[in-house]
């Protein structure tokens, strides 16, 4: 089983982004496989989106709802999805998380509007630092 398969099967993953000074900022998030990458969804105005726009370096690890990791972290590169990509991520999340996903996405859309959230696409790196083919 690849890192991508293992992480995509988790209910939550710990997405760690990095501040300018290098300090790690971990956040538990829902995750889903998006082709050869892992995709997550978040509010557009979060710190992680700002940090990813500045520097896409991240790590991803399996975790529980409270962010306690229970597996090894895998390095990757994250990018912020455009509107079409964000819609695709929302659809994938609805499929994986079923009713809970639909309710979460609906509540967020009612609070923030459609542009209030974005998808993040994470290409994992293999053990020698190259982008993994998936």
TrEMBL record:
This is Pyridoxamine 5'-phosphate oxidase N-terminal domain-containing protein. Signal peptide: none annotated. The keyword 4Fe-4S does not apply. GO terms for molecular function: coenzyme F420 binding; oxidoreductase activity, acting on the CH-CH group of donors. Gene3D superfamilies: Electron Transport, Fmn-binding Protein, Chain A. InterPro entries: F420H2_bilvrd_red/Heme_oxyg (IPR052019), PPOX_F420-dep_Rv2061_put (IPR019965), Pyridox_Oxase_N (IPR011576), Split_barrel_FMN-bd (IPR012349). Keywords: Oxidoreductase. One of its GO terms (cellular component) is cytosol.
């Amino acid at each position: 089983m690849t890192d991508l398969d293992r992480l995509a099967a988790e209910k939550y993953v710990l997405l760690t982004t990095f501040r300018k000074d290098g300090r790690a900022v971990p956040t538990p998030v829902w995750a889903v496989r998006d082709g050869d990458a892992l995709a997550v969804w978040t509010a557009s105005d979060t710190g992680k989106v700002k940090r990813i726009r500045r520097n896409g370096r991240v790590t991803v690890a399996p975790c529980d709802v409270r962010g306690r990791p229970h597996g090894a972290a895998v390095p990757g590169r994250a990018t912020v999805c455009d509107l079409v990509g964000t819609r695709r991520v929302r659809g994938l999340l609805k499929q994986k998380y079923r009713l809970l996903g639909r309710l979460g996405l609906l509540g967020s859309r009612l609070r923030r509007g459609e542009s209030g959230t974005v998808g993040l696409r994470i290409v994992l790196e293999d053990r020698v630092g190259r982008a993994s083919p998936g």
